[in-house]
Design a protein that fits this description.
Elements: H1 13-44, H2 50-63, H3 73-95
Helix pairs in contact: 1-3, 2-3
Length: 101
Amino acid sequence: MRRSFKFLLRPTSRQAASLAACLEDHRQLYNAALEHRRTAYRKAGVTVRYGDQSGESKHIRADDPDGQGRWSFSSQQATLRRLDKAFAALFARVKAGRTPG
């Protein structure tokens, strides 16, 4: 039997600002990774995968210590995995002959 727990989150204003900044930086990471994949395929016909983008995140963190560098590496990997999962689901639907979207 599985149990689930619900926790009420009541952050202070400082914590809420930090959570908003974290969310914004992860949104930017997701969108930049998506654009990287689209541009690489459009211009060179190259498929960029999770492993490629995860390897580049070390350099991204070093170049932007006040932005991407302040969050944990594993949370950024999870963001890149979500993008990879979305692409896998999209192409699975296309391969099955269903409408992608």
